[in-house]
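Example 3.
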Amino acid sequence: MSTGQSIQEVKAFSYDEDVAFTKVTLWKRFRRHRLAMAGLVVLCCIVLAAVFAPVFAPFPPNHIDNVHWQGTPLPPCFENAAACGGHPLGTDEVGRDELSRLLFGARASLQVGLFAVIIEIVIGSIVGAISGYYGGWIDYLLMRITDVFLSIPILPLLLVLTAIVVATSSRASLSFGVIVLVIGVLSWPNPARLVRASFLSLRNREFTEAARAVGNGDLRIIFRHLLPNAVAPIIVQATLDVANVIVLESTLSFLGMGIQPPTASWGNMLTGAQVNVENAWWAAVFPGIGILLTVLSINFIGDGLRDALDPGMH
Amino acid sequence: MALLEVRNLRTTFKTEDGTITAVNGLSFSLDAGQTLGIVGESGSGKSVTSLSIMRLIDRPGRIESGEIVFDGRDLLKLRDEEMRHVRGHRIAMIFQDPMTSLNPVLTIGEQIAEVVRLHLGRNHREARETAIEMLRKVRIPSPEKRVDDYPHQFSGGMRQRAMIAMALSCNPQLLIADEPTTALDVTIQAQVLELMNELQRETGAAIILITHDLGVVAETCKDVLVMYGGNMVEYGDAKQIFAEPRMPYTQGLLASLPRLDAPANARLKPIPGQPPNLHRMPPGCAFAPRCTYRIERCDAPVPVTDLGGGHLARCWRCTETLAPVGAAQ
């Protein structure tokens, strides 16, 4: 027992990490990260644009402009003001307004990213917390299951699963749900490992023993006392994973197995743009920029958060 | 009837080099409202004893045998669920280091209120009121403001007082304080001890004070239990033991203390040798290898001698008058 106590004494020294947790110092450190601040501004714009898509969009996203569209995509107004027919960023290959679809596509991408990551983090945190807290054979079992999930190639599985759903149903909302669920359910191993690692050290902290000594049950200790202490790496992982999921969703939609047309998503807009890529660059470039900016901003924010939450890393 | 009666407690830990016995057949009892000091150096088993009473011994540790009868019930026979209601409610504990034993992400108030909600079934608002009341009792200034502070906004002494507030919030019958002042400044130590004594008088709780500081024991405890190598070596009234220690280890401990009435150039008198390696315990008296008065019989298990007046010593020669171990040389 005495060796245990001396370890605690050494730990007391690193207590400053906890002190660094107040919101004010967190924001101060985050603000110093220029790219992260830029990312935050850009992402806020994108999120606002997506939320208020019906307000900003000049046309309904699935409206086909039969008046101006003649079989080829209309160019953006800044390229050919006479021919654009009032579509600021032109139209796609079937005459739907590019800007409107871009705005509504942002909704799809951000929603898939957000909801899939919520599922992933919830499952991952529970599995990792239980695994790290109890240790022993429970830990062993859960970690082997995690290994199995880690070894599943997610893209082929998603392709097959969504192909089945798409073949049996034509409702876009259904394929949206399937994508969210499958990505979420398959990508929990990473957060699970992170949370487990935190819990392995947290369970030996003195305040864990103190929490047991006042009569708390295991579940209360795990979720009320320890999980909030492990939140920093979870937030960073979640942020970076939103970006990953957006790329994954775009890939799926591009391959025709993601969000189903006519619902707009950045991925399936790219699919449509392939046909006319030589004479209608705008149809491919704008959704591409959308994906790029979103993913880049989120990754910068993630880096900024990591630096702010974990100053010891530098 | 005694509030707490520990009989033949044996707690072991499995390690890669074999099983070690951290507490080996310890027995003692404590009456309601009394203060018992448990003294001993690192590794003597004092902390393991307190954790055993709370049943907080974790793998690879195990309570092998014994009884811990608290308020008429053997704690070792309770279901986990029942034991949870004892912890924090009937028996509370204060840990050594207030810097690490409060959760950094929960406010002081939340942590105290949680215990009250857990055991007394109070709602959020009432529990918060109780938390403020307890903070006031342990003399945290403007408690209605400080209740929403996080632990890092408290100083070390305040944190330990907050721990005491938490421990006493459900009016426990027994408070186990495991080196409550070791991590604090000397001036704060005195305040914290005084506070504990005062609250004890108010609530009538019994206290087990675990420490290696004999000065603290002298100030606060009625009885004292000296541990060495996982078992009791001397037990009795604190005044009596300080005046007339009968076991050579206790004598050595007392002789090794600095004294105000000693000449300025006097050297401290340490006990020669090291505490026993728990992997290779001596077969008889654990102190025998360091003891100046060792005789042949000391290498076989030594029984406890009752010296009368509740004074017990585990030593063959406890009835003789001997000079302290360190001083004899």
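Residues 251 and 324 of chain B are 5 Å apart (CA to CA). The first helix of chain B runs from residue 46 to 53.
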